[in-house]
Write a structure and sequence with these properties.
The protein contains 15 helices and 14 strands. The chain has helices spanning 20-34, 70-77, 93-105, 126-142, 152-160, 200-203, 205-213, 230-236, 255-259, 276-283, 297-303, 313-325, 330-344, 347-362, 366-371, and strands at 2-6, 38-44, 49-53, 56-61, 84-88, 109-112, 146-149, 167-169, 191-195, 219-223, 244-247, 264-267, 288-291, 306-309. An 8-stranded mixed β-sheet has the order 3-4-2-1-5-6-7-8, sandwiched between helices. A 6-stranded parallel β-sheet has the order 11-10-9-12-13-14, sandwiched between helices. Helix 10 packs across helix 13 (330-344). The longest helix is centred in the middle third of the chain and has 17 residues, at 126-142.
C-alpha cells in the first residue's frame, strides 16, 4: 500500500522528534513501513529536500511567498492514483488547501486531527475558530473519505458538531526504543510529575497546582517546553513552598527514563487527543492520574493502572487522595500498566490494524493492501 502522511512541522530529516504529533506520525509510519508499505511523510521546510528515515521517506517542500504549497501539490499530482493521503492536524489553512486539492482531483484523503473538537477547543480565540470552522474546517472534515480518531470520545464530539464522515480508530503506541529497564519507586515522600508542553489551559496545569494546595502530602514537578505559562505557574506554585518546581525540557533521554524519578504521572488535560506521555508513564511502570478527556483514559481504566478524573480541582483532589490511599499498590499498578501497554499499544500491532482500516477506506481487501506497495 502507498501512503502519504502530511504533517506541516515534521522535521525534514526525520529527527529530532519533538511533540506528541510528530512522535505519533513517526511511530505509525515506521511500523507501517515494517509491514511492507511504501510510506512517505510530507512536511514543510524553507527548501526542498528528501531524507530517508526509519524505513520511510521524508519529502519537505517550501511555501511560496503567499504561503501556498505549489511544489507539494505538483509532487502529489504525479503520484499514482491508488494511494491515500493522511492529513495530520487541525485548524490549519494549508491542510485545508491540500484537502480542497484532493477533492478537486478526486483523490481520497483521511483527516487525523489528533486533538478532539471538544468545547474547550473553541473557547480560546472562539470567534476566529468558529469562522474558520464554517469556512474551512467543516468542509475539510465532511469532504474526507474518513476521519482518523484516537479514541471513541473524539467521534462523539464530531457527531455533536454534525460531522457525518465515516471514522476509523487508530490509537497511539510506543516504540521498542522507548522501553527502558523498570526502576523502583523513589524512596521519598510522594512526588507527582507532568512531562509535556507547559500550556496551563490545555493541559489543566493550573487546576493541578490548585489541587495540590489541598493535598499537602505531595510535591509536584512540571517539565517541558514553555508555551508562555511557566512564569504564571511558578507564581501560582508559591502556595506550595518547597514542593513545587518547573523544569526545562530534556530531549536526550527517553521520556520513560525521566519519569522513573517520580512516583505518579499526572495528565489532567481539559482536552487531549490521546496522551502519549501517559503511555510513556505506563511503560515506566508508574501509576497515572489522567483526565477523562484524554483518549488513553479507557485504556487506563482497563489496565487498572491509575485513576481517571475530570479536569477540575475537586475531582483531581479526590483522585490524588484515592491514589495516596492505595500507595501500597503503586508498584503493582505500574506493572499492570506496562503489561497492558506491551500487549495492546505497541506500534506493530497498531500498524496492522491501521493497514486494514486504510484498505477499507480504499475499498480493497487486507490481502491486496499487504501485497501492493
Amino acid at each position: 500500500m502507498r501512503l502519504h502522511f502530511y504533517l506541516e512541522h515534521f522535521p525534514p530529516s526525520g529527527s529530532p522528534l519533538v511533540g506528541g504529533t510528530a512522535k505519533a506520525v513517526h511511530g505509525l509510519a515506521s511500523a507501517l513501513a515494517d509491514e511492507g508499505n511504501e510510506i512517505v511523510v510530507l512536511a514543510e521546510h524553507e527548501r526542498r529536500q528528501t531524507a530517508h528515515h526509519a524505513g520511510y521517506r521524508v519529502e519537505s517542500f517550501p511555501r511560496d511567498r503567499w504561503g501556498r504549497q505549489p511544489e507539494m501539490r505538483t509532487y502529489l499530482a504525479e503520484q499514482p492514483a491508488e494511494g491515500l493521503l493522511v492529513l495530520n492536524g487541525m485548524f490549519s489553512p494549508r491542510l485545508g488547501t491540500l484537502a480542497r486539492w484532493c477533492r478537486r482531483m478526486g483523490r481520497p484523503y483521511v483527516v487525523a486531527p489528533h486533538t478532539p473538537y471538544a468545547p474547550h477547543v473553541f473557547r480560546r480565540g472562539w470567534l476566529k475558530k468558529r469562522a474558520f470552522w464554517h469556512l474551512a474546517e467543516r468542509p475539510t472534515l465532511q469532504g474526507a473519505t474518513a476521519i482518523q480518531v484516537l479514541a471513541p470520545l473524539q467521534g462523539e464530539y464530531l457527531e455533536t458538531l454534525g460531522i457525518t464522515t465515516p471514522r476509523i480508530e487508530v490509537p497511539n503506541g510506543f516504540r521498542a526504543a522507548d522501553v527502558c529497564p523498570a526502576q523502583s519507586l523513589p524512596d521519598r515522600e510522594p512526588s507527582l510529575f507532568f512531562f509535556g508542553r507547559i500550556d496551563a489551559f490545555t493541559k489543566g496545569l493550573d487546576v493541578l497546582v490548585e489541587a495540590c494546595e489541598r493535598v499537602p502530602q505531595v510535591s509536584l514537578t512540571l517539565q517541558g517546553p514553555d508555551w508562555g505559562d511557566a512564569d504564571a505557574l511558578r507564581k501560582q506554585g508559591m502556595a506550595l513552598p518547597g514542593r513545587f518546581q518547573v523544569l526545562d525540557p530534556v530531549y536526550d533521554q527517553p521520556a520513560a527514563q525521566v519519569m522513573s524519578g517520580y512516583h505518579v504521572f499526572c495528565c489532567p488535560s481539559r482536552y487531549e487527543g490521546f496522551g502519549l506521555s501517559v503511555l510513556e508513564a505506563m511503560i515506566a511502570e508508574r501509576p497515572v492520574l489522567v483526565s477523562d478527556q484524554a483518549g488513553i483514559a479507557p485504556h487506563v481504566r482497563q489496565a487498572n493502572c491509575g485513576v481517571v478524573v475530570s479536569p477540575d480541582v475537586d475531582s483531581i483532589v479526590a483522585g490524588l487522595k484515592t491514589l495516596l490511599a492505595r500507595q501500597a499498590e503503586w508498584a503493582a499498578m505500574g506493572e499492570r500498566g506496562r503489561t497492558y501497554a506491551e500487549r495492546n499499544l505497541n506500534w506493530p500491532a497498531i500498524a496492522r490494524e491501521a493497514q486494514a482500516a486504510y484498505a477499507r477506506v480504499l475499498g480493497i481487501s487486507a490481502n491486496e493492501a499487504a501485497a501492493s506497495p
